């Protein structure tokens, strides 16, 4: 094993975040991912990316060890003490950016989102899919080639070492597999601060609990936990589902669109999770819209998240 690979392993084992590893070793994120592939293919390491509440992304090996979630479509929010009686975690949710469309999300709006996060000590942004417009024959596009759209996405999403973006692919992203273009792999190659967990649905662990994120609004039989967030409909909503025997109530939060395809003003959600003893008890949501180059709240709602018996 080369000296550089040994240094990379040492920094991973020390739980240095990806940005710090690349900076200290003077390598690009593209080179870093190449060296990870060598460690995986030649030395049988199996790394999983973890997003932390402070915005850092770290890697861990051997995901089957106790306490580490091994599902490829799950990421854990680290640094939340399970024995803490009460904790509050503030996040921002965005969805349906449709970069490449003439009505897609703008760089200016995303800069406002990042500014809001920095001003409110928020380090986690979740995205519910449709990052790019993809192969869309219905609307007008700035870029027809999805590769150009993905490149533009990388350019318009600000980079902040203290902010991690976690999300899923939507239908406009995932359908590109049919055109020999893997959107998830492309983003991972160039941006260490963005984690895409797979197509349409994923689970996000928080403390001892977890919630689900979807692109399309889930059906009752698709929901595994009591709280989920979905995009696709381009509007903010709060919906309760009840199980067939009426014993369980599920909450789905519809995340508004950051584009102006169906709305005149882009929008996002600030979501505060209240945890009691590591379990999500309540969520507090604010719908934010762009007014005079700043994000201002227009809806504030509190919802109780009930647990299964």
Overview of this protein structure:
The chain is α/β, with parallel strands linked by helices and 309 residues long. It has a single domain (71-304), classed as 4-Layer Sandwich (Purple Acid Phosphatase, chain A, domain 2), CATH 3.60.21. It is 23% helix and 32% strand. The protein contains seven helices and 15 strands. Strand 13 (267-276) and strand 14 form a beta hairpin. Residues 63-73 and 78-82 have low confidence and may be disordered.
Write the layout of secondary structure elements.
Blueprint: H1 3-13, H2 18-25, H3 29-43, E1 48-51, E2 57-60, E3 74-77, E4 86-94, H4 107-119, E5 124-127, H5 146-156, E6 164-169, H6 171-174, H7 183-190, E7 194-199, E8 201-206, E9 209-214, E10 227-230, E11 237-242, E12 249-254, E13 267-276, E14 279-291, E15 294-304
Parallel strand pairs: 3-8, 4-5, 5-6, 6-7, 9-10, 10-12
Antiparallel strand pairs: 1-2, 4-13, 8-9, 11-12, 13-14, 14-15
Give keywords.
309 residues; Purple Acid Phosphatase, chain A, domain 2; globular; alpha/beta; 6-stranded mixed sheet; single chain; 7-stranded mixed sheet; 23% helix
Look up the CATH topology: Purple Acid Phosphatase, chain A, domain 2
What is the general shape? globular
For the secondary structure, the number of strands is 15
Record the strand order, biggest sheet. 7-6-5-4-13-14-15
CATH C-level label: Alpha Beta
Q: Spans of 5+ residues with little confidence (pLDDT < 50)? A: 63-73, 78-82
Relevant CATH superfamily:
Metallo-dependent phosphatases
Question: End-to-end span in angstroms?
Answer: 51 Å
What order do the helices and strands follow? HHHEEEEHEHEHHEEEEEEEEE
Compute the gyration radius: what is it?
Answer: 19 Å
**Percent of residues in helices:** 10-25%
Q: Indicate the CATH architecture.
A: 4-Layer Sandwich
Instruction: Tell me the count of domains.
Output: 1
Q: Would you tell me the overall average pLDDT?
A: 85
Strand content: 25-35%
Largest sheet report:
7 strands, mixed
Please count the helical segments.
7
